[in-house]
Specification:
The protein is an alpha/beta fold. The chain has two domains: 292 residues, FAD/NAD(P)-binding domain (3-Layer(bba) Sandwich), CATH 3.50.50.60; 103 residues, FAD/NAD(P)-binding domain (3-Layer(bba) Sandwich). Strand 13 and strand 14 form a beta hairpin. Bound molecules: flavin-adenine dinucleotide. The site of flavin-adenine dinucleotide (FAD) has 33 residues, from helix 1. Flavin-adenine dinucleotide binds next to helix 1.
Length: 511
């Protein structure tokens, strides 16, 4: 009896997806729908969820309404609140993974440490903590806000108390009665502060720059409304449509007419005034830049928590740590037992960049040393069949990132399903196409509030260039990513001969 052919040493798949947040799971669903079932989703953690698995801090919730902050193909009539909390969003993503048949494709504890394009075989060679794969295409959905950033402060290593980042909350550490410092006043800190202030002994908030904060129109979605959305699906479609339309209309003010935001700024000023009576604190909390320049935050309980008797707002950054004393940049000293860093993420220097190497043997990080660029936020010259989900200039200041992710998935699926017809093994953008896209994005960026509003923000890279936010409506981006334009691409031909071992396709993924 002939013996079975030996299993390939390195399993091969058509597509390898990195990450299992909204981006990676969305990619999985769309691949299956396109009839591509030969793929793996490589995830460094031991569960799906990305942002919504990692961020479990007290008060963690979305700040775009849930009925818009969800997949169009997986509506959820049961969102419990207009801005649902992390446990519900995480459960939603677990359900998406199950309902859409993604479980057989998931590989956990599989951190991608290297992905290298091999010109000879026209394939990606991928090394992970759980083994190696080869793939014809690589979809990188590693998340814009996935790798925490803690500032390198002198003396931090010797701090005798507890230290953690907002996205790595230590639930075993009891904050009750402790002197706690929260460093940073961004989107995470503003949710954390009011939720821990009542239980801690003393709360010290280090605020380098104040944020503009608007009231949060959050409410419980009553059972009758949820039943209505279940019984009459068009009601939830209508709800989503209204949420979407309102945000699309706001974009012009952010992008072309920042002066229109003056009225919004007045609401934010009124919001400070009604919650904070102490004039000195009010001055500390009032930004000196135009609203919208940094991400607008929403909260009803942040200001009252800052005005509470056990809270001190230090209007300065953290400079150094001396034992259990934190020294601010204004020279003041503060004794604490624990430090919570709400200091954001590696956004413009995404760590996966140094792990992905293209056709010329250069890493994405090297390619991007002067700033991130990609054609239509998704593809990069010299990196054949690499597709970035939430790549450069695809972030949003005011609407749901899922809209952008789904647009990119349209584009990626179009590229993958047209390769055969184009007679190519792979594609990557021409330098001209990538350059002219980037120049157009940066030209449109010039009039935006992010550039003209008088602030610096995490939207900008080390050179001060905004390489993160999309200067337009989500509708504009949807149209720009509907299909690939072959004129914008260089095609990589099929190699003359593919080594037999690499040719054998692993039958490990359920088709
Ligand atoms: C606290 C918080 C609140 C937010 N609220 C909103 C909101 O209200 N509205 C909105 O539009 N956006 C919001 N965002 C932005 C949010 O990140 C995106 O909306 C979305 O969740 C991103 O999905 P993603 O799949 O691209 O990335 P992520 O959810 O970050 O998933 C990336 C995944 O890739 C994995 N990964 C990374 N590197 C590797 C590697 N080398 N190998 C293997 N796996 C890897 C990570 O473990 C993670 O599971 C919020 C972000 C945060 C942090």
């Amino acid at each position: 009896m002939p013996s079975a052919p030996p299993a390939p040493a390195v399993p091969h798949v058509k597509v390898a997806v990195i990450g299992s947040g909204f981006g990676g799971l969305g990619a999985g669903v769309r691949l299956r729908r396109a009839g591509i079932t030969d793929f793996v989703i490589l995830e460094r953690a031991d569960a799906v969820g990305g942002t919504w698995r990692d961020n479990s801090y007290p008060g963690c919730a979305c700040d775009v309404p849930s009925h818009l902050y969800s997949f169009s193909f997986a509506p959820n009539p049961d969102w419990p609140r207009s801005f649902s909390g992390q446990p519900h969003i995480r459960a939603y993503l677990e359900k998406v993974a199950t309902d859409f048949g993604l479980r057989p494709h998931l590989r956990f504890n599989a951190e991608v440490t290297e992905a290298r394009w091999d010109n000879a075989t026209a394939r990606w060679q991928i090394t992970t903590a759980a083994g190696r794969w080869t793939a014809e295409a690589l979809v990188s959905a590693t998340g814009p806000l996935a790798d925490p950033q803690i500032p390198a402060l002198p003396g931090l290593d010797a701090f005798p108390g507890k230290v953690f980042h907002s996205s790595r909350w230590d639930h075993d550490y009891d904050l009750a009665g402790k002197r706690v410092a929260v460093v940073g006043t961004g989107a995470s800190a503003i949710q954390i502060v009011p939720n821990i202030q009542p239980e801690v002994g003393k709360l010290t908030v280090f605020q380098r720059t104040p944020a503009w904060v608007l009231p949060r129109a959050d409410r419980r979605i009553p059972a009758v409304e949820r039943a209505l959305h279940r019984a009459l699906p068009f009601t939830r479609t209508l709800r989503r449509g209204i949420l979407f339309g309102v945000r699309e209309l706001q974009v012009d003010a952010f992008v072309r007419r920042p002066r229109l935001l003056a009225a919004v700024q007045q609401i934010a000023e009124w919001h400070i005034g009604r919650s904070v009576k102490d004039p000195a604190l009010k001055t500390k909390l009032t930004p000196d830049y135009r609203i919208g320049c940094k991400r607008i935050l929403i909260s009803n309980d942040y200001y009252p928590a800052l005005a509470a008797a056990n809270t001190e707002v230090v209007a300065a950054g953290l400079r150094e740590v001396r034992g259990s004393t934190l020294v601010a940049t204004d020279g003041t000293e503060h004794e604490v037992d624990a430090i919570v860093f709400g200091t954001g993420f590696h956004v413009t220097d995404m760590p996966i960049g140094s792990r992905i190497t293209g056709a010329a043997g250069r890493s994405l990080a090297e390619e991007w040393k002067d700033g991130m660029t990609a054609l239509r936020g998704t593809t990069v010259h010299g990196f054949p069949n690499l597709f970035l989900v939430i790549g450069p200039n695809t972030g949003l200041g005011n609407s749901s990132m899922i809209l952008m992710i789904e647009s990119q998935l349209n584009y990626i699926i179009d590229a993958l399903t047209r390769l055969d017809g184009l007679g190519a093994a792979a594609l990557h953008p021409t330098p001209d196409a990538q350059r002219s896209w980037t120049e157009d994005v940066q030209r449109r960026m010039r009039t935006t509030v992010w550039e003209t509003g008088g602030c610096t923000s995490w939207y900008q890279d080390a050179q001060g260039r905004n390489t993160t936010v999309w200067p337009g409506t989500t509708g504009h981006f949807r149209r720009a990513t509907r299909r690939i334009d072959p004129a914008e691409y260089e095609l990589v031909p099929h190699p003359a001969a593919v080594p037999a071992q690499a040719e054998a396709r692993a039958q490990e993924v359920g088709a």
